[in-house]
Hints:
Four copies of one chain form a homotetramer. By secondary structure, the first copy, chain A, is mainly alpha-helical. Chain A is built from eleven helices and four strands, in the order ααααββαααααααββ. Chain A folds into two domains: 1-49, Homeodomain-like (Arc Repressor Mutant, subunit A); 56-232, no CATH class. The model of chain A is unreliable at 154-173 and 227-238 (pLDDT under 50). The structure holds a DNA duplex.
Amino acid sequence: xxxxxxxxxxxxxxxxxxxxxxxxxxxxxxxxxxxxxxxxxxxxxxxxxxxxxxxxxxxxxxxxxxxxxxxxxxxxxxxxxxxxxxxxxxxxxxxxxxxxxxxxxxxxxxxxxxxxxxxxxxxxxxxxxxxxxxxxxxxxxxxxxxxxxxxxxxxxxxxxxxxxxxxxxxxxxxxxxxxxxxxxxxxxxxxxxxxxxxxxxxxxxxxxxxxxxxxxxxxxxxxxxxxxxxxxxxxxxx
Amino acid sequence: xxxxxxxxxxxxxxxxxxxxxxxxxxxxxxxxxxxxxxxxxxxxxxxxxxxxxxxxxxxxxxxxxxxxxxxxxxxxxxxxxxxxxxxxxxxxxxxxxxxxxxxxxxxxxxxxxxxxxxxxxxxxxxxxxxxxxxxxxxxxxxxxxxxxxxxxxxxxxxxxxxxxxxxxxxxxxxxxxxxxxxxxxxxxxxxxxxxxxxxxxxxxxxxxxxxxxxxxxxxxxxxxxxxxxxxxxxxxxx
Amino acid sequence: xxxxxxxxxxxxxxxxxxxxxxxxxxxxxxxxxxxxxxxxxxxxxxxxxxxxxxxxxxxxxxxxxxxxxxxxxxxxxxxxxxxxxxxxxxxxxxxxxxxxxxxxxxxxxxxxxxxxxxxxxxxxxxxxxxxxxxxxxxxxxxxxxxxxxxxxxxxxxxxxxxxxxxxxxxxxxxxxxxxxxxxxxxxxxxxxxxxxxxxxxxxxxxxxxxxxxxxxxxxxxxxxxxxxxxxxxxxxxx
Amino acid sequence: xxxxxxxxxxxxxxxxxxxxxxxxxxxxxxxxxxxxxxxxxxxxxxxxxxxxxxxxxxxxxxxxxxxxxxxxxxxxxxxxxxxxxxxxxxxxxxxxxxxxxxxxxxxxxxxxxxxxxxxxxxxxxxxxxxxxxxxxxxxxxxxxxxxxxxxxxxxxxxxxxxxxxxxxxxxxxxxxxxxxxxxxxxxxxxxxxxxxxxxxxxxxxxxxxxxxxxxxxxxxxxxxxxxxxxxxxxxxxx
DNA sequence: AATGAATGAGTATTCATTCAT
DNA sequence: AATGAATGAATACTCATTCAT
Lengths: 238, 238, 238, 238
């Protein structure tokens, strides 16, 4: 198959890989299958990519890059801006707001952000599956799921943190906050996307209903964190 | 290596498989690796199992069986007993309790159950990882993760449901309740187990601290469902 | 070893397979042996054929196709033509000729055909061996030997029969005729080819002598069927 | 399965082997299949036989022994006796009889012998198949089919020959006679037995009809050899 | 850009055979 | 006589990758 536009061929290889990797897993997918689904010869794959693994890396890295962009945007328009406006102050293990209006403002921003993130992971759900599969294995992408968390977290080396860090040097999350955020916020989001198709079938809901239902659940969760003028996770036994 | 008790050999094959499948995934694990880790010859594997896949099936099926036992136990000592005692009534989309004492009673039972489930998934975390990996693929075990959910759910054909159903014919969960329970209760639990080792490393917590932190998060979540004399998921926008 | 014309490589695989299958039998031949005799790698065999069995199928099917062509040719230039010329009439269990000249004419054609068939099976004797081996087994080719017989026989579904059938609707062979034709005409021919090499050694004859001797035997057999103005197999006890 | 009479167990192994070897061929039959069909463990087979090949050897050797007995009997009661009685003289390329009565006598004996041989090969048809399969391969039993022919033939080393040889030192068959006897007498007989089941199906004849039909064919063949006071195969072109 | 022939190391599985009990 | 666990070499087949054109 001759093609003037090499980019389109490359796209076809990528899309075939996404579909196959997300269905059968990386290991169980053969280059032959990718080739035939993409409508190219096996040899041609090696013109565009150095190896099968390089295709995987490309997929995951692209996803991580897009995710970073979204997270960065939230941090900037949300947290950093509120700090600069004097509406928010980050203490050792909690975020302190100037008043009830600031909390409502922040809450809206967080929920908006979560909704945007939800749209993103649903759109990219095939790659999300691949990421989940690979993050469970001893692979190069073993830690990518955690890197997603750290995107809004407290690692020295991630760009989002650096942004926050520069805005307020005292920022740090408590351990509880981190656990909560990861396992009851990011993990549900990622898993919702990863298992979307199958869950939709067994739930008999429409796309709209399902998405709304999931967001309602998140709001309940989130509301449970907001109390009075604080967002907190107390270290004393509740 | 001769061995009178073939069962021990079989166990060694199973344990090696658990370790390898959970580390590298089923597809990337070779029978040669299983054999050498189990200290047996490749041929012997096929004396005990019909195929590599049959080993996987065995692992997953065992896990599902154990999980069912735990869930059944909770339903019996928790829900069914309270209904029989007249302390709990199950309505269309909520559980209604006779008084505050009944709620505290029930809450304790749920949290105890979650803790027991947590101990279980942590102990079996290697197999949980395998289950997660396989449930993401188009495999025989594609739906096993959902079957875990349905264990305390409302399918006509699962043993736990049948038990509840006999106790109260009107029982049913709302769609929201199901989404919440799956994505913000089971999914975090499963993922906590699956990513336990790696999370522990990056969190720098001890086993005890980590487990307690996770349970505290769950309690917050759970508390947000309890209100007055009801446990509910409201269908109106919150 | 690169080769522009893949067909030549394919031929080498086919020829090696013929040699090995006919010597050791299909089951006892390994793909490794085929590869090394053909001077290719094991993997390449699977580039040209889907499986070892597909090679076998190809060999046998080719032989059957060639045999069909030869049989068809005989039917056309022999039987059908004589019927059209009014020299031959086919009755229920015998062929009736118009006169002695017609019989001599027909006899010459049958013997010529048998000689051509003999040349064919001798040339293809390696594949004939394979066919015999497989037709003795519960394999896909279990009935191919009989299909050879039916090529000039009376099945509704074979092309030769259809040709004759169109020429004379009353045509049918008696059971005796069929037994005779198969076991004392086709079977000797096929076995002559299949055991040719070994028989030649123990008989100490040259190719020419052996072939002539075999044909003389056939002529005696054939002559015993021709009597008066008929070719027949009587149903009364001889 | 415990068994007091080891012989019966041995028989079960033999019978299972006959059935399986004749259906799938020696190479494609596994010791596991033999064991399960015989109702014994794999290990036990090696108590009774040194190897899988030894089972095959046993089957074929038994058949050859029985066949030899039948052939010997014919030679004694047929040929040798007639020679001793002065009714038959064996010349270079023909058998010369004293008169028409001697021919009828001899013919009856030959046909009786063929009929007995037919009963024998039909009874042993499973082993005959195995013999045919093996005689087509480069195996230990490569020449066993020819050894069957030589049983009434002219090899220095076979017991039947020795008997005839001692009765008349001038005995020898012409090449033609040998070709005829092998390919149009023994080969049809053996093939009739080997393909019996399948041929029966496609011919729609009963056992009785089929056997009679085959014998009638043989009689026609045989009659064509008997002419005047001689049984001959002429070396001049017929 | 694209093809398709070719490679070779690897993979699950099989199987005749052994052997301690 | 009989079992069943164990072996290890072999087997059909796969697949990521290379490369000349």
